[in-house]
């Protein structure tokens, strides 16, 4: 019996030694996978802080109406609240988590958060009093983004939410772009994506393609990728095409949409004879000029409809100037999902469109 005890003790010591020597990378590899849907975030604070009025303040930050949709429009994010009385499982492992930490609520949040981690964050706040917050990754789950907003008290926290409203919303979107891509594409490398590699070879540009999508049309000047869910009357599509680039006049919103409409009319006929898909003139598109992977680009969010029919839905266009090859490269995601919430599906399409690469 004594020999067995020594054997058990040796094993226990060995296991303890291994656990003490585990690297941060190894610890993260042991974490569970993150949970949560697209177009959703979890906000954690203490129950006393999260009264009904303060929840409305937080929702005003993350629930801005999506651009390019009919009013009143859907919210960019659905906000799910958690406090020290229930934080674990789905909430703790959510891929997009915001924590509202103050000197006043720290003791309550230590009931559900690692004490040393909270103390470290409070120390950062003391050393950098003007800081908005701290970004962390993979704290409670793999493929998780966490942003901790730091403040002295609830009043300071409220002022920070109002002053940094746009910045915090952008952080939420950036977090989701990163974690959402991993959710959709997994850990598969781009080199193993046959569709993507074929597009790069044939056209010099392409997007990543999850297994749930199929190629509906692939001709010399146009690609149409579709994901159909017949039981929900739902269809998600991505289009790829290009047009010559000769001057900045080619980049006006009217010019870009005219190019897009020309391809849609040619390759996406309506169900009624003579009908065809086009960008809606009833809703003004929302344009943003921004560089995309070191190339000049334009984002357009708007609404498509069908000439001669009563179909329509949201659209997201990414147009990028490829000066080296004298062209404008287009990637568009559009959705048909009548009478249902569209934010989650459009976020999926936007993430996939933004996997666009140009050789």
Outline the fold blueprint.
Blueprint: H1 2-20, H2 24-29, E1 40-44, H3 52-62, E2 78-82, E3 96-102, H4 106-109, H5 115-127, E4 133-137, E5 145-151, H6 154-163, H7 165-185, H8 194-203, E6 205-206, E7 214-219, E8 222-229, E9 234-244, H9 253-267, E10 276-279, E11 286-292, E12 295-307, E13 312-322, E14 327-336, H10 343-353, E15 357-358
Parallel strand pairs: 1-2, 1-3, 3-5
Antiparallel strand pairs: 4-5, 6-15, 7-8, 8-9, 9-14, 10-12, 11-12, 12-13, 13-14
What does this structure look like?
- The protein has 2 domains: 23-185, Rossmann fold (3-Layer(aba) Sandwich), CATH 3.40.50; 190-358, Protein Transport Mog1p, Chain A (3-Layer(aba) Sandwich), CATH 3.40.1000.10.
- Residues 4-19 have low confidence and may be disordered.
- It has 10 helices and 15 strands.
- It is elongated.
- It is of the alpha+beta class and 359 residues long.
- Overall helicity: 25-40%
Mean pLDDT: 91
CATH architectural label of the largest domain: 3-Layer(aba) Sandwich
User: What can be said about the biggest beta sheet?
Assistant: 8 strands, antiparallel
Would you give the CATH topology of the largest domain?
A: Protein Transport Mog1p, Chain A
Overall geometry: elongated
Poorly predicted residue ranges: 4-19
Order of helix and strand elements from N to C terminus: HHEHEEHHEEHHHEEEEHEEEEEHE
